[in-house]
Amino acid sequence: KDTEVIVISGGEPTLLGKDFLKIVKRIREELPNTKIKLLTNGRSFANKKFCSDVAEIAKGYLTAEIPVYSTDYSKHDYIVQSKGAFFETLEGIYNCAIYGLNVEIRVVLTKQNYMELSKIVSYVYKNLPFVDHIALMGLEYIGFAVKNFEDIHISPLDYKKELYEAI
Q1: Distance CA 165, CA 155 (A)
Q2: Cα separation values, 137 from 37, 43, 55, Å
Q3: What DSSP string describes 62-124?
Q4: Lower CB density within 10 Å: C or N end of the chain?
Q5: How many CB atoms lie within 10 A of CB 70?
Q6: Which sign, positive or negative, has the C-alpha torsion 59, 90, 66, 16?
Q7: How far lies 152's CA from each of 42, 125, 135, 145, 149, in Å?
Q8: Could you tell me which of 111, 92, 114 has the C-alpha nearest to residue 103?
Q9: Shortest CA distance to 120 belongs to which of 53, 165, 55?
Q10: Pairwise CA distance, residues 55 & 96, whole Å
Q11: CB of 127 within 8 A of CB of 167?
Q12: Which of 154, 133, 50 is nearest to 92 (CA)?
């Protein structure tokens, strides 16, 4: 009962739809003081009803941790391998703000986007001022990254200048 934080990850947990809502509701019932961190692409939150339902259960407790890979929609879509993802993600982020859910933007650095790190941070600062936190992250060796590691991985030593400028 004294768990401070619980993390929900996946795949994409919000694809469970109503079952996801049941999970969040159960966490809130069993662990009423526990913060929830949700690793999500944010696209399900583009559905206002879904976003509203999550907020009704967990507003003030849930933080949606959503990646933004580029300010260029086509590059973001290419990195996540899904056409239309950028705009759906942004709509989800704005809906989180409208319904009072906390948002963390996660910028995962890859060979494809490290050169625009400062631009991404500036974009979030100017266009998403309600965001609680920006996390600048190295690539994790999971999911898509395993199969494409050589094509996307970049050492932090190779982007230290861009990281310094962005910070």
Answers
A1: 17
A2: 16, 20, 27
A3: EEEEEE---SSHHHHHHHHT-TTHHHHHHHHHHHHHHTT-EEEEEEE--TTTGGGHHHHHHHH
A4: N
A5: 21
A6: positive
A7: 22, 26, 19, 7, 5
A8: 92
A9: 165
A10: 8
A11: no
A12: 50
Residue type, 61: Y
State how far the Cα of 124 lies from the Cα of 94, in Å rounded to an integer: 12
All residues at 6 or more sequence positions from 8 whose CB lies less than 8 Å from its CB, including other chains:
23, 24, 36, 37, 38, 39
- In 3D, which of 14, 13, 12 has the Cα closest to residue 47? 14
Q: What is the pTM of this model?
A: 0.93
Q: What is the pLDDT of residue 45?
A: 98
For residue 151, pLDDT beyond 90? no
Helix (H) or strand (E) holding 152: helix 144-152
**86-105 pLDDT per residue, tens:** 999 999 999 999 999 999 99
Q: How far apart are CA 93 and CA 164, in angstroms?
A: 26
